Amino acid sequence: MVALATVCWLHFSWPEGLLLGAIVSSTDAAAVFKCASLSKVSLRGKIQPLIEFESGSNDPMAVFLTLSIVHFINYKPDSILDFLPSFVLVWRRTSSWIAIRTGHHHYH
What's the rounded Cα separation, in Å, for the pair 87 and 105? Predict the structure, then answer.
């Protein structure tokens, strides 16, 4: 939705619109909790852990999408098929970095 709005209303290119969408796609749990506390809303039961989980699981995907789209913009492929090998490389590097940072890597 962000990419479509950016392309239609701000006249950005599709890659630029997708990049903006990837950047804003991550939900910041701290911002959600701050807004809730400012409006005096109490997050009870399973809501708070759910927001924390959603934020934690969404952030790595936002990082991957942002890196992939930046790489796509810089690479300027003739077609999406030309970009697939680079896309896979970015995916592997990003997932390896996330695995190492979270302690979920396994050496064989």
Answer: 21
